Amino acid sequence: MNKKVLILCTGNSCRSIIAEAVLNAYLEGVDAQSSGVKASGKVNPNAKKVLKSEGIWRESYHSKTIDKVIDEEFDLVVTVCDNAKESCPVFPKKTRVIHVGYEDPDGKEFSAFEKTLKLIKTELTPIVRMELEL
């Protein structure tokens, strides 16, 4: 059975979507989802573009609020922005929550999205693997 991971951010349009896609693509045995504490309701076009260039975009990826997933049980919750860390809700089950923050690429050049993808791939993936003991 796959381990369930929630990636939590503020807007759920860039970092958390990228992290969701990276974990799903590169961590076997993980089912990652993402949401936002104040979701924007849309995926940033450059986030979608960078995931497509990596070959890991899925049409099912979309921006959603925390209330859409709050009742699900997760093995791990990862906050990827400071605001989400501060406003992270309490989950029904005793869920492990960690913070691995990344600078928001929104409003920046495409290269900022490439950098975010690379950092998430090289930093977050091994951290999640270790946390879940995969």
- Mean pLDDT comes to 91
Structural class per helix/strand content?
alpha/beta
Describe the sheet with the most strands.
Answer: 4 strands, parallel
- Low confidence ranges: none
Q: In total, how many beta strands?
A: 4
**CATH architecture field:** 3-Layer(aba) Sandwich
| DSSP summary: helix tally | 4
Envelope shape? globular
Tally of distinct domains: 1
Instruction: Tell me the CATH topology.
Output: Rossmann fold
Strand share of the residues?
Answer: 15-25%
Broad CATH class: Alpha Beta
In N-to-C order, the SSE pattern is EHEHEHEH
CATH level-four homologous superfamily name: Response regulator
- Computed over alpha carbons, the radius of gyration is 13 Å
Distance between the termini: 12 Å
Descriptive account of the structure:
This protein has 134 residues and is of the alpha/beta class. Helix content is 37%, strand content 16%. It has 4 helices and 4 strands; from the N terminus they run βαβαβαβα. Strands 2-1-3-4 form a 4-stranded parallel beta sheet. The longest helix is centred in the C-terminal third of the chain and has 23 residues, at 110-132.
Write the layout of secondary structure elements.
Layout (H helix, E strand, L loop, with lengths): L2 E7 L5 H12 L3 E7 L8 H10 L21 E4 L2 H5 L9 E4 L10 H23 L2
Parallel strand pairs: 1-2, 1-3, 3-4
Helix pairs in contact: 1-2, 1-4, 2-4
